[in-house]
Amino acid sequence: ILNFNNLYPNIELSVLGLRTGDIREKLLRNELDIGITFLPVQDKEIISIPLYKSDLTLVVPTGHRLAERNHVSIAE
């Protein structure tokens, strides 16, 4: 953030910890310019653009029924 402020001194950058629904509401009320969420926001007035793809890692104890699998779906 310090580097950003040094590069762009005329831009105010605030980092807030908000829930997705709160981000949606603040965007719709023009209280935020952008928001970053883990899941896309479903609203016809908001565009969600993926920033990057992240793989999740499942951690289970030895002997667990999924322990020997290379891939596991979220449904499992």
Automatic annotation (TrEMBL):
Record field: transmembrane: none
Entry-linked Pfam families: LysR_substrate
Recorded GO CC terms: cytosol
Domain of life assignment: Bacteria
Segments forming domain LysR substrate-binding: 3-76
Name of the protein in question: LysR family transcriptional regulator
A Gene Ontology biological process term: regulation of DNA-templated transcription
Organism name: Bacillus cereus
Signal peptide region: none
